[in-house]
Design goal:
The chain is α+β, with helices and mostly antiparallel strands. The chain folds into three domains: 67 residues, Uridine Diphospho-n-acetylenolpyruvylglucosamine Reductase, domain 2 (2-Layer Sandwich), CATH 3.30.43.10; 113 residues, Uridine Diphospho-n-acetylenolpyruvylglucosamine Reductase, domain 3 (2-Layer Sandwich), CATH 3.30.465.10; 104 residues, Uridine Diphospho-n-acetylenolpyruvylglucosamine Reductase, domain 1 (Alpha-Beta Complex), CATH 3.90.78.10. Helix content is 25%, strand content 28%. A five-stranded antiparallel sheet has the order 6-7-12-10-11, with no helix packed on it. The chain has a four-stranded mixed sheet with strand order 1-2-5-3, covered by helices on one side. A four-stranded antiparallel sheet has the order 13-19-18-17, with helices on one face. Strand 17 and strand 18 form a beta hairpin. Helix 4 packs across helix 5. The longest helix is centred in the last third of the chain and has 19 residues. 42% of the residues are buried.
Length: 336
């Protein structure tokens, strides 16, 4: 465990917001969690910070931030075509991707290059290019802060939904995740429902391998998304909105090129990025903040942006999209 006071969080959040935490605790092992909870996390406010890729700090944090840095990937069981991995919360997500490629474990290669830590993956139910992490998670282990007791939740217990889980609902800000268990496949199979990924593989005449699929995903992401080390950003700032089929038909009549994907109960999931672009916001800059030139869904810090500038752009985007389409965008990012 490593404790520091008045910690600058600029390098701990991908937006690059220069804010400070009164107390900052690095968790260097899962065994440290109970003591840290007892000593500091019972004293509100507190926040569990993963890789900082989905968090916008809007002001200094007058409390304790706990940041898990303990990693590790263990193969717990291999049976038939299935393999069970236990991954520590502080393991960088892309390290897990590379581990699976090297060992030829299939299932999460489409989630290549998503920034963050393994322990954050179930919270957000991260997803990309036709794959959601919920489809590979067996269970999640950790501690409830309010009681100090350990928990072990099955996949069903996690109540996964689109960019959502029990960790963003009734367990929000009341748990420290220590391990995530993934079940992957040793049988060769891929999810190729995203046309851009198929096109990228075909254009490069690349055979279907884990590494090639992963490399193509990385190329697509690199072309659309800015590197946080250069341009501060938190990835997708808004959720893709889900609308009823009737609403979609009405919008489609007005905008024939409207992109949509099937959602549960006959609803349609629209592309937030396309809606934002049609509202005139792609690549637009206001002060030091704005939307990214290659992907309107990404809000960026061009350098020196304040949290208020970023939120100002977000509010303006929400207003203009609602005015044009009658749809209210919901923030995907955690606002602190």
């Amino acid at each position: 465990m490593k404790l520091s006071e008045n910690q600058n969080l600029k390098t701990y959040n991908t937006f690059g917001m220069e804010v400070y935490a009164r107390r900052f605790v690095q968790l260097e092992s899962a065994e440290e969690v109970p003591a840290v909870m007892e000593e500091w996390l019972r004293q509100r406010p507190y926040y569990i910070l993963g890789g900082g890729a989905n968090t916008l700090f809007t002001e200094d944090f007058d409390g304790t931030i706990a940041h898990p840095v303990f990693g590790g990937i263990e193969m717990m069981e291999k049976s038939g075509e299935k393999v069970l991995l236990r991954v520590a919360a502080g393991e960088p997500w892309d390290n897990l991707i590379q581990y699976c490629i090297e060992h030829e474990y299939y299932g999460i290669e489409n989630l290549t290059a998503i920034p963050g830590l393994a322990g954050s993956a179930p919270v957000q139910n991260i997803g990309a290019y036709g794959v959601e992490v919920k489809d590979t998670i067996v269970k999640v282990q950790g501690y409830r802060i309010s009681t100090g007791e350990p928990f072990e939740l099955t996949n069903a217990d996690c109540r996964f939904a689109y960019r959502n889980s029990v960790f963003k609902q009734e367990m929000k800000n009341d748990c420290v995740i220590t391990y995530v268990w993934f079940q992957l496949s040793t049988e060769k199979h891929f999810t190729l429902t995203y046309q851009g990924l198929v096109q990228s593989l075909q254009e490069r005449e690349m055979p279907l391998t884990l590494r090639n699929v992963s490399d193509c995903v990385r190329r697509i992401r690199d072309a659309k998304l800015p590197d946080p080390a250069i341009i501060g950003n938190g990835g997708s700032f808004f959720k893709n909105p889900v609308v009823q089929a009737g609403k979609y038909r009405d919008l489609k009549a007005q905008y024939p090129d409207l992109v949509a994907y099937d959602a549960p109960n006959g609803d349609k999931k629209l592309s937030a990025g396309q809606l934002i672009e049609k509202a005139g916001w792609k690549g637009k800059r206001v002060g030091n903040a704005g939307t990214w030139k290659n992907q309107a869904l990404v809000l960026v810090n061009h350098g020196g942006a304040t949290p208020q500038e970023v939120l100002g752009v977000a509010d303006a985007v929400i207003h203009d999209v609602n005015a044009l389409f009658g749809i209210t965008l919901e923030m995907e990012i955690n606002r602190m």
